[in-house]
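User: Fold this; tokens only.

Assistant: Input:
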Amino acid sequence: MKNTFKMISFGVILVIAMFSVQTVLAASIVVGGKGFTEQLLLAEVTGQYLTSKGFDVELKTGMGTSLVREALENRQVDLYWEYTGTAFLTFHKNKFANQPGEEIYKAVKAKDAGIGIVWLNASSANNTYALAVRQADSGSKGLKTLEDLAAKLNAGDKLTLGCNIEFYKRDDGLKPLQKKYGFEFPRSDIKRMETGLVYKALKDGDVDVGLVFATDGRIPAFNFVVLRDTKNYFPAYAITPTVREETLKAHPDLAEHLNKLSSLIDDATMSALNAQVDVEKKSVTEVADGFLKAKGLK
């Protein structure tokens, strides 16, 4: 009788143990990410938030764009944050012809659905190319939009532009931008330099207009104003969680959690988070923790 009871007890314990292991495995999520500040932050925020929701999270960050995409396709990661413009132009080889951001999002969402990758709700953060000016000049010179810039240049105002060599040469770079808005920087007023140096040159007054990435942390830190692209010249690069379809099926609540995070991220928020790391030199872990606590998510 005792042996029978022991066998039953052992069997119950074994079943419970197996169920527990299966539960842990079922809740295991691998979050991928690229190797620059914004992507490291997004992965860390996601990892900390999902951990607080009971998931066992592993981070695999520091990858290049092609590698992290391949990792998603090959089931090495379950999810990561991607940019709509990157998928539209790089992964799916589309041509940009001033399609609005919503159209780009719908195109990549539909295309990737065919290979089991789900694009959840896009955030309001759009990390695209942009032209920026110092805040003081935005006020004193009335520079709020790219149309304002065109009007100033066409009226004879002398303004210098700082941009990287790629933007100066590329087919969807400076020349077609000038054509779209009907202005032209004299060649002598264009200073070509590495991307990172543009921010310093603009801050120090060495140039009047600088090429930036819209969610870069140095924009708010250096009091820059991004000129609005009223004619929709630059492609949309909306930051969006992308997840393997089978992962979502295994964890039905995952989409709700990720969409919650996405709803909290816009240009200003992302820029501020980036600035805490790049300018204030805080750790990615610290900044992610602070963000989640400030939003009441931790």
